[in-house]
Amino acid sequence: MTARPIPLGPGATAWAPETVTTDPYNAQTPSAALAEPVTPVGAFFVRDHFGIPEPDPRTWRLRFDGAVEAPFELRHDDLLALPHRELDVVLECAGNGRGMMSPRPPGLPWDQRAVGCARFAGVPFRALAARALIRPDAVEIVFAGADAGTVRDRRVHFERSLPRAAALHPDTLLATRMNGEPLAPEHGAPVRLVVPGRYAVADVKWLVGIRAVTEPFTGVFQAEEYVYEDARGTPEGPVTAVRVKSLITAPEPDTALRRDHETVVRGRAWSGGGFRVCAVEVKAAFQDDDPAPEWQQAELEPPAGRYAWTAWSFRWTPHRPGPCRVLARASDTHGDTQPVRPPWNARGYGCNPVASVDVVVV
Ligand SMILES: Nc1nc2c(c(=O)[nH]1)N[C@H]1C(S)=C(S)[C@@H](COP(=O)(O)O)O[C@H]1N2
Ligand SMILES: [Mo]
Questions:
Q1: Using CA atoms, how far apart are residues 32 and 219, in angstroms rounded to an integer?
Q2: Which residues line ligand 1 (CB under 6 A)?
Q3: CA neighbor of 320 nearest in space, from 282, 293, 357, 356
Q4: Ligand 1 closest atom vs CA 147
């Protein structure tokens, strides 16, 4: 593991995520924490479908079986003894932004803060796969969490699958540490999956089971939930790659800015599916602007790795007074740009509209 300092801001210990629901516990990252390059663990959003199981690392076992030649069980110490890789990764809930969709789909009403970027250290899944000897006819790998509950009248564990190739990618990690500390209970202690570039539903917490399967997995969180559906409920494919997105961290909403004084508009941008952010554009629109202003390029800082988010900034001097909307949109190396109005879907996934903040110039 490479030892790099973790740039936690002042008051890092005072962070607390903003509760959305208490049972199960769901909370979003406070706005101030999004200004940090690495989101403090105590501020990082939490998405739980069931209770937090808190497995005891001393009795924790990870079972790897299914369509493999050499099934085995690992203890926590065995896993810790394997070589770890460290990656800064953006985790974003597929439902992030749902609360701003209209009409509002059912589900947790996240605004745009079910997102964070953390430094994960973990054992590449492929190291375990090499030991289990996955059979050639295995098409997917199913990852099971220790948590369970009732969904659609069925008692289920939280389970998700990955296509074989995605699981075997060297950056698919069984993470044991987050921001230099052992995983916190709410983030999947003692071990969770981290799959960079996919919506965070892929990142199974409290991992206890891995099995190779020869047919595509149809568990409830794979084939029923986390699927894009049109207004009639017709499935349009599973939630996979994170869509390009940005957020504005400064100025804060409703800030009064001084006319003819420079202000710095700042934020973060990220994308998934192996694509990187290549541009962020900003514009400031006064209500009666005619013609509408042009988009202008923001400056990008190099991200802390290929799966980390990109900090951007734009120097702006407003020359007239009035209420104004500051907008930002990111583009990625796939050629996608944040839309003004993302395609509506019945469950409110992948909502990545142009970011905006309303301010007033005085
Ligand atoms: N075992 C388990 N893993 C899980 C979940 C869960 O409910 N149970 N929620 C998933 C979803 S939908 C998201 S967005 C991420 C959230 O990770 P975090 O709580 O560490 O931010 O965990 C994923 N992994
Ligand atoms: Mo999620």
A1: 37
A2: 44-49, 91, 93, 145, 147, 158, 187, 200-201, 203-206
A3: 293
A4: 1
**How confident is the model over 149-163, as a mean pLDDT?**
95
The answer to whether residue 181 scores a pLDDT higher than 50 is: yes
pLDDT given for residue 14 in this prediction: 67
Considering the domain 245-361, what is its CATH architecture? Answer: Sandwich (2.60)
CA of 201 to the centre of ligand 2 (A): 5
Please give, one letter per residue, the 3-state secondary structure of 49-86: CCCCCCCCCCCCEEEEEECECCCEEEEHHHHHCCCCEE
Which ligand 1 atom minimizes the distance to the CA of 24? 7
The ligand placed nearest to the CA atom of residue 94 is: 2
Look at the domain 18-225 and name its fold. Answer: Sulfite Oxidase; Chain A, domain 2 (3.90.420)
**Alpha-carbon torsion, ordered 330, 275, 197, 117, to 10 deg:** -50
Closest CA to 181 of 1, 362, 26, 351: 1
- pLDDT tens for 61-119 read 999 999 999 999 999 999 999 999 999 999 999 999 999 999 999 999 999 999 999 99
Across all residues in the chain, what is the average pLDDT? 94
Q: How far is the CA of 338 from the centre of ligand 1 (A)?
A: 25
245-361 shares the fold of 18-225: no
Residue ranges of the domains in the chain?
18-225, 245-361
For range 285-299, the mean pLDDT:
89
Helix, strand or coil, per DSSP, at residue 126: helix
Q: Which amino acid is at 235?
A: P
- Using CA atoms, how far apart are residues 74 and 76, in angstroms rounded to an integer? 7
Dist CA 300 CA 271 (whole Å): 14
pLDDT band for position 343 (cuts 50, 70, 90) = confident
Cβ pair 194, 175 in contact under 8 A: yes
Q: Which letter, b or e, does each residue of 239-275 get, where b requires 16 or more Cβ atoms within 10 Å of its Cβ?
A: bbbbbbbbbbbbbeeeeebeeeeebebbbbbbbbbeb
The residues facing 282 across adjacent strands are 296, 328
- Compute the distance between CA of residue 346 and CA of residue 344 in angstroms, rounded to an integer: 7
Instruction: Examine residue 105 and say whether the peptide bond preceding it is cis (omega within 30 degrees of 0).
Output: no
62 CA to centre of ligand 2 in angstroms: 23
